[in-house]
Amino acid sequence: MNQYIRKYAPYLLFVFAIGLYFNTLNHGYVLDDFSLIKENFVVKKGVDGIKTIFTTHYRYGYGFQSGSLYRPLTLSIFALQWEFFPDQSWFAHLTNLLLYALSGGLLYQLLIRWMDPIVALIASALFIAHPIHTEVVANIKSLDEILTILLLIVLLYHLHRWVTKNEKKQLYLSMFALFIALLVKESAITFLGVIVIVLYFFEKQSISDSLKKTLPFLIPLIPYFILRFNALKSMTSSAPVAKIDNMLVGIDSTASLFATKIYLMGLYLYKIIFPFTLMNDYSIQQIPLVSLTDWQFNLSLIVVVILAIIAITQTKTKSLIAFGIFLYVITLSVSSNLIITIGTHFGERLVFLPILGFCIIAGYLIQRLIIQKKFQMIGVIGTVIVLILFSVKTISRNKAWKSDLILYSTDIKNCPNSARCNYSYALEIMKEKALKAVNEVEQQHYYEEAEQHFLKAIQLYPSYSDAYGNLGLLKYRTKKHAEAEKYYLKAIELNPNNAIVLSNLGAIYFEMKQYEAAKNTYFKALKANPNMADANANMGATLATLGQLEASIPYFAKAIELNPTNIQNYYYLGITYQNVGNGAMAKKYLDHYHQMK
């Protein structure tokens, strides 16, 4: 039987994954797909943008002036996708799907080198089917997570061959895989810990020998950190993490901070075992702060301590249970907020790789049942039932990721206390429903609904600058300019560098014919974000209106560079060149305008 499992399992797992996520192929862009792909001016340059991608931080192409993330290989793949399949989300989803399916087959082929084929098969199948992975596979942006596990598999494959065959070439290939993985996502640095435990648990190495054999893998870190430093100009970002992104920021009580971090560890474990209430957002107020006396903390602490005891006591026997726990802890370490504070306090995508540890543990425990005749049917039937439940949930959950509107309208039922979820849902109502309403009565209804969710977001998080800013935009669109200005000013008070709000405020001043005020406001917007297309175009229009034609030209040109599909900017630049007497340039841009019409 093991012979047939070995032969056909990789192909079956590949097909299994395709079946689970086939319904994502008609999905569009969702969440960070916009900032990293569809609205990223560097990525949309295609191949020409790759050089910039390698020399700037992760979110540079969306206008952020500083950042702490450096993932050039992931963005480069997005740029290549845009080069050959521009604005074709189906192709990006197909890429995620095929690579995820490939990871399932390769994962099994890696695991059977160290464990029973049944354990490897069950672990791989559970990993593929687990519903918590829907965020990763159905969200194009999370290609980095899929590539990370693929590169870890490649690394460990060559590591195994190096140790067993003593071929230097295999060591170099393994080191190269680590370097590439770091360019995909920073959390690949945890691979160093994975190498140590793999050598110890599976390759018959002592702890000291495992550590020694891991030393060469420090070498790939050198070129990576050089590239990272040159792009970021530092190893970390000076920009603080916002509380709306990570509720752990600004907690004054050390005891509460510790208790909440442990509770979050317990919540991850709960979601892994019972993945039936999934959400795209767990931001501020959705997850409560806890204290040392709260049951959530105490239960989480007990579970964490028990797992630690099991891992430590079973390390000597090299138990798969101990290995699984160590794999989980090591790969989650950077994202857990226990060591460093990252840009979010909780996210389903963050356990994409760590969950493999628990899948291995489950595979091992089920295999122990199956090899005993009296429990064999329990093990088999139980596994099948879990895989069916996981599969049904995965296919169902995928549907929510079709668009932002569907995602937020689905998740608002489960995260009503999330400030960001309310804010994002209001934004989608305003953008996708109000602006597309068939009549004024329907439109007004949608604006009122959006306003309620904006106000709920502000109630949950009173310092929510973006919520005030978009509430101002709502008032602007309903012709209530005085209220719009009030909300814009409040948003700017909370965040003086909110470039979008500054640009929108400038539009009000422009409409009120207060051109100098508009000019000064656009200047502040561009100081906050020089790569904002709308602010550049609006500054150009304001300067032209003030008669400063020559000064307006660079702003129109920059707007075209940032958003080459906006045909109006070609027209404005052409007319401006015409008015300053430059006929050749006027013809160039006006011809381009007429060609694009």
Describe the structure in your own words.
The chain is mainly alpha-helical. It folds into three domains: 2-400, no CATH class; 418-495, Tetratricopeptide repeat domain (Serine Threonine Protein Phosphatase 5, Tetratricopeptide repeat, Alpha Horseshoe), CATH 1.25.40.10; 502-597, Serine Threonine Protein Phosphatase 5, Tetratricopeptide repeat. The chain has helices at 2-21, 33-38, 50-54, 72-84, 89-111, 117-129, 134-138, 143-165, 168-184, 191-202, 207-214, 221-232, 254-273, 295-313, 320-332, 355-370, 376-398, 404-411, 419-434, 440-460, 465-477, 481-494, 499-511, 515-528, 533-545, 549-562, 567-579, 583-596. α15 (320-332) packs antiparallel against α16 and α19 (419-434) packs antiparallel against α20 (440-460). The longest helix has 23 residues, at 89-111. The chain is globular, with a radius of gyration of 27 Å. The mean pLDDT is 91.
The largest sheet, given as strand count, sense and whether it forms a barrel, is: none
Unreliable stretches (pLDDT < 50, length at least 5) are none
Number of domains: 3
Q: How many strand segments?
A: 0
Percent in strands: under 5%
Question: Could you spell the SSE succession in H and E letters?
Answer: HHHHHHHHHHHHHHHHHHHHHHHHHHHH
Keyphrases for this structure?
597 residues; globular; Serine Threonine Protein Phosphatase 5, Tetratricopeptide repeat; mainly alpha; 3 domains
List the helices and strands and how they pair.
Layout: H1 2-21, H2 33-38, H3 50-54, H4 72-84, H5 89-111, H6 117-129, H7 134-138, H8 143-165, H9 168-184, H10 191-202, H11 207-214, H12 221-232, H13 254-273, H14 295-313, H15 320-332, H16 355-370, H17 376-398, H18 404-411, H19 419-434, H20 440-460, H21 465-477, H22 481-494, H23 499-511, H24 515-528, H25 533-545, H26 549-562, H27 567-579, H28 583-596
Helix pairs in contact: 1-5, 1-6, 5-6, 5-8, 6-16, 6-17, 8-9, 8-10, 10-11, 10-15, 13-14, 14-15, 15-16, 16-17, 18-19, 19-20, 20-21, 21-22, 21-23, 22-23, 23-24, 23-25, 24-25, 25-26, 26-27, 27-28
